[in-house]
């Protein structure tokens, strides 16, 4: 089962049509390149291939066929959203979902409180509980 089938690299991304992210914070990084498909952009972002930063999202310009890899996403401070009919935004689900899968070892979201509102313990802290 599943032999011979290639996994679609877009599966790991949340798509928002007609949206681009604009960096207000100048330290945030972007790299662009001409690529024919969103699948090629997604594959490079997932592997961080040729990027000097961890890729959290990419925007694909459907008009110029240009991929914009982003070191940030829509939840990052210093970023604003802009409606743009030429772009589709693809954000890595790991960085934008607010749920924990399994034991949460790969969780990269922004939730830092429990369901009941208690602040989460820092990973590098042994207080109030040992790991």
From TrEMBL:
<dbReference type="InterPro" id="IPR003609">
    <property type="entry name" value="Pan_app"/>
</dbReference>
<protein>
    <submittedName>
        <fullName>HGF factor</fullName>
    </submittedName>
</protein>
<dbReference type="Pfam" id="PF00024">
    <property type="entry name" value="PAN_1"/>
</dbReference>
<dbReference type="InterPro" id="IPR013806">
    <property type="entry name" value="Kringle-like"/>
</dbReference>
<dbReference type="GO" id="GO:0004175">
    <property type="term" value="F:endopeptidase activity"/>
</dbReference>
<keyword id="KW-0420">Kringle</keyword>
<dbReference type="InterPro" id="IPR000001">
    <property type="entry name" value="Kringle"/>
</dbReference>
<dbReference type="InterPro" id="IPR038178">
    <property type="entry name" value="Kringle_sf"/>
</dbReference>
<keyword id="KW-1015">Disulfide bond</keyword>
<dbReference type="Pfam" id="PF00051">
    <property type="entry name" value="Kringle"/>
</dbReference>
<dbReference type="GO" id="GO:0005102">
    <property type="term" value="F:signaling receptor binding"/>
</dbReference>
<dbReference type="GO" id="GO:0005615">
    <property type="term" value="C:extracellular space"/>
</dbReference>
<feature type="domain" description="Apple">
    <location>
        <begin position="5"/>
        <end position="94"/>
    </location>
</feature>
<feature type="domain" description="Kringle">
    <location>
        <begin position="98"/>
        <end position="131"/>
    </location>
</feature>
<dbReference type="InterPro" id="IPR050759">
    <property type="entry name" value="Serine_protease_kringle"/>
</dbReference>
């Amino acid at each position: 089962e599943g032999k011979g089938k290639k996994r679609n690299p877009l599966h790991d991304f949340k798509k928002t049509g007609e949206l681009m992210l604009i960096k207000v914070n100048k330290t945030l990084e972007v790299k662009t390149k001409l690529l024919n498909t969103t699948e090629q952009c997604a594959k490079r972002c997932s592997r961080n291939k040729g990027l000097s930063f961890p890729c959290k999202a990419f925007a694909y310009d459907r008009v110029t066929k240009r991929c914009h890899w982003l070191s940030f996403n829509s939840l990052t401070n210093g970023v604003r959203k802009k409606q743009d009919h030429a772009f589709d935004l693809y954000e890595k689900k790991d960085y934008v979902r607010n749920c924990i899968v399994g034991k949460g070892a790969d969780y990269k979201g922004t939730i830092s409180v429990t369901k009941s509102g208690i602040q989460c313990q820092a990973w590098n802290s042994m207080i109030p509980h040992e790991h």
